[in-house]
């Protein structure tokens, strides 16, 4: 199954779901999804189907990338990619059913189970009122409800709890995920979501991360919306609702529409605006802006037009600008939101509103300050202008920054020099305040660094790893002579030991050892990253399909390369010992000590020559010379 999934999956296509890739020779480049950087150091090789992040040191294949981004296990990554490639995994799941029953379900499995329960409940008799609310009052079509996996939690304290006990879902997971709540006095469990329409919140890759719930109660004391509590799988600040469904269209249209609520997203998608996402009921965060930046450089704000919505958009504009995105704003008339406007006036009227009311972020800022009366007196106008120039200062591109200064100068009737001075003063004030704000913060400690890998051991690993593409002759030799090798670097030893062990476990010694999968399963992140780094740097074979003769030639070259590395590796400790004796001999004071060290050096030279001769004979014998 793993081979089938890999052969059906292009790493460039998968990685493009998470970062914006740009062609760079034979490779693709992007800003690292693992670190905050301004210069791209994340490289994807379509030839090798590998990625390498030079800022974090991480590397791997398509499976390890999905594991990193989605925080899932290797089997879960394989399953996600299989579904993405349209591969039927039913036959493989049936083969592993007994083993899976014994394995404790992960939290993502539990979340997926809960989402299916909520969805089936909505379709049952118990969910009749909730379904009527969604289809009647909110105008949702059955296909839309299925596409977003909407569900229902009935007005029961134990519906989810009893279903978990019936289906064998781990109750402890449901508690840690916030789907069950423990009564502080009675020490009993009850359902967190009750009498609520349920909105599953998915990761970019389509994994259920948490839930939002909209009450159907008219009780003013009941919160209208609640979300899953923060957990290892659910961090609201790092999720965008609907992103899994919108990412491709955002990339195609080169624009993301950002709304406030779950229903806004769903209504927009149903109306055909499938590049719409929401910020999960929170103010826009820099992490969410970074996600958007992977797919586009333009974001259209479409929040409610009340004071709270305007305030959120003003703050969000600065966040987007700081991440290199260009914000635009549309203000809907009156108290309308996207969901209500589409239901009341239809798709065509909404499209016309988008086209006629779209304004730049500077026009929106100026309009907000004018509506609030800030531009009527010099003291408040000065504050407003200072805020607008601070926004411009966040723009990294110098040409864009200059153009926005020109535009603001025309709108305000102030000289560009004045605006630059205001911007410089604001920037200086912010810089001078930063040290005081961080005075009590403890300086971050640099991570402990391991000793660098020696040239000898790296050459040895390069030959070993490259050889696996042309057969098992080198691995067979390494497994037969394992006692000869002593690798000082722990990561190098882990790589070598793992590959030798996996070769010995093969039923068919002439079979193919999938090197990238084996590296993924080493179990030591540093060792895996090192092995992937070596693979990534190996030269690419220009021949798309090797003939048997070419394959044999490549295999023999790899074996020869490996044996030369073996000779260096075996003799290097003896060479170091020789240098140690010579150094002691040069500093020896007494005659007796000099004679003793001279005899030791003579004996060591004999051992060195004997070992060198033995290794050379072994190499000639292996190569048939």
Q: Strand percentage, roughly?
A: 5-15%
What would the average pLDDT be, to the nearest integer? 85
Radius of gyration: 32 Å
Low-pLDDT stretches: 97-105, 431-448
Based on the model shown, name its key terms.
alpha+beta; 5-stranded mixed sheet; 625 residues; 5-stranded antiparallel sheet; single chain
General description of the model:
- With 625 residues, this protein is α+β, with helices and mostly antiparallel strands.
- It is 56% helix and 10% strand.
- The protein contains 28 helices and 16 strands.
- The strands form four sheets. It has a five-stranded antiparallel beta sheet with strand order 1-2-3-4-5. It has a five-stranded mixed beta sheet with strand order 13-12-14-15-16, sandwiched between helices. The protein has a four-stranded antiparallel beta sheet with strand order 6-9-10-11, covered by helices on one side.
- Strand 12 (256-259), helix 13 and strand 13 form a beta-alpha-beta unit.
- The longest helix is centred in the last third of the chain and has 40 residues, at 548-587.
- The chain starts with a helix and ends with a helix.
Show the helix and strand layout.
Blueprint: H1 2-7, H2 11-15, E1 22-24, E2 27-30, E3 42-45, E4 50-53, E5 59-60, H3 62-70, H4 74-84, H5 90-95, H6 97-102, H7 107-123, H8 128-137, H9 142-147, E6 151-153, H10 159-167, H11 171-176, E7 180-182, E8 189-191, E9 196-202, E10 208-215, E11 225-227, H12 243-253, E12 256-259, H13 262-270, E13 276-278, H14 286-293, E14 298-301, H15 307-322, E15 326-330, H16 338-345, H17 347-357, E16 358-360, H18 361-371, H19 378-393, H20 398-412, H21 416-437, H22 455-467, H23 473-480, H24 490-505, H25 515-520, H26 525-537, H27 548-587, H28 591-623
Parallel strand pairs: 12-13, 12-14, 14-15
Antiparallel strand pairs: 1-2, 2-3, 3-4, 4-5, 6-9, 7-8, 9-10, 10-11, 15-16
Helix pairs in contact: 3-4, 13-16, 16-17, 19-20, 19-21, 22-27, 23-24, 24-26, 27-28
């Amino acid at each position: 199954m793993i081979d089938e999934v890999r052969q059906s999956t292009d790493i460039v296509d998968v990685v493009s779901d998470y970062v914006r890739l740009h062609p760079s020779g034979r490779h693709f480049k992007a800003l690292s999804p693992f670190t905050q950087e301004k210069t791209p150091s994340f490289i994807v090789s379509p030839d090798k189907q590998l990625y390498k992040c030079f800022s974090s040191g991480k590397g791997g294949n398509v499976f390890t990338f999905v594991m990193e981004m989605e925080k899932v296990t290797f089997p879960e990554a394989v399953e996600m990619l299989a579904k993405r490639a349209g591969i039927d995994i039913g036959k493989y799941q049936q083969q592993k059913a007994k083993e899976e029953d014994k394995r404790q379900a992960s939290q993502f499995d539990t979340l997926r189970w809960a989402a299916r329960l909520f969805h089936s409940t909505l379709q049952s008799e118990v969910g009749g009122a909730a379904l009527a609310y969604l289809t009647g009052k909110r105008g949702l079509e059955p296909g839309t409800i299925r596409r977003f996996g909407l569900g229902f939690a009935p007005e029961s304290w134990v519906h989810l709890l009893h279903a978990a006990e019936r289906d064998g879902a781990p109750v402890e997971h449901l508690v840690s995920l916030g789907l069950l709540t423990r009564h502080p006095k009675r020490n009993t469990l009850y359902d967190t979501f009750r009498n609520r329409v349920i909105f599953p919140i998915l990761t970019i890759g389509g994994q259920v991360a948490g839930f939002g719930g909209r009450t159907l109660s008219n009780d003013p004391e009941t919160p209208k919306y609640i979300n899953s509590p923060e957990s290892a799988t659910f961090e609201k600040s790092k999720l965008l609702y609907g992103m899994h469904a919108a990412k491709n269209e955002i990339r195609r249209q080169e624009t993301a529409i950002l709304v406030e609520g779950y229903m806004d997203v769903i209504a927009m998608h149903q109306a055909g605006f499938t590049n719409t996402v929401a910020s999960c009921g929170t103010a826009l965060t820099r992490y969410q802006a970074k996600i958007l930046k992977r797919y586009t450089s333009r974001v259209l704000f479409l929040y409610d037009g009340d004071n709270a919505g305007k305030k959120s958009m003003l703050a969000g504009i600065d966040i987007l600008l700081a991440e290199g995105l260009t914000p635009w704003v549309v203000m809907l008339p009156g108290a309308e939101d996207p969901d209500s406007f589409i239901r009341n006036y239809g798709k065509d009227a909404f499209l016309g509103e988008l086209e006629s009311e779209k304004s730049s972020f500077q026009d929106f800022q100026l309009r907000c300050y004018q509506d609030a009366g800030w531009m009527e007196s010099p003291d408040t106008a000065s504050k407003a202008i200072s805020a607008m120039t601070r926004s411009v200062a966040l723009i990294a591109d110098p040409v864009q920054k200059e153009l926005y200064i020109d535009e603001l100068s025309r709108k305000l009737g102030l000289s560009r020099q004045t605006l630059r001075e205001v911007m410089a003063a604001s920037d200086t004030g912010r810089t001078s305040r930063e040290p005081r704000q961080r005075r009590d913060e403890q300086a971050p400690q640099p991570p402990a660094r391991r000793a660098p890998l020696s040239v000898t051991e790296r050459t040895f690993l390069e030959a070993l790893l490259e050889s696996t593409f042309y057969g098992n002759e080198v691995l067979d030799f390494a497994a037969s002579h394992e006692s000869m090798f002593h690798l000082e670097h722990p990561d190098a030893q882990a790589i070598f030991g793992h590959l030798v062990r996996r070769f010995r476990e093969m039923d068919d010694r002439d079979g193919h050892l999938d090197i990238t999968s084996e590296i993924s399963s080493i179990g030591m992140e540093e060792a895996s990253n090192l092995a992937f780094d070596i693979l990534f740097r190996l030269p690419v074979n220009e021949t798309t399909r090797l003939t048997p003769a070419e394959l044999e030639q490549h295999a023999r070259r790899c074996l020869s390369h490996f044996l030369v590395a073996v000779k260096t590796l075996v003799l290097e400790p003896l060479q170091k010992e020789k240098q140690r004796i010579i150094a002691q001999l040069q500093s020896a004071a007494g005659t007796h000590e000099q004679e003793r060290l001279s005899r030791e050096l003579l004996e060591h030279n004999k051992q060195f020559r004997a070992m060198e001769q033995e290794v050379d004979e072994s190499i000639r014998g292996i190569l048939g010379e």
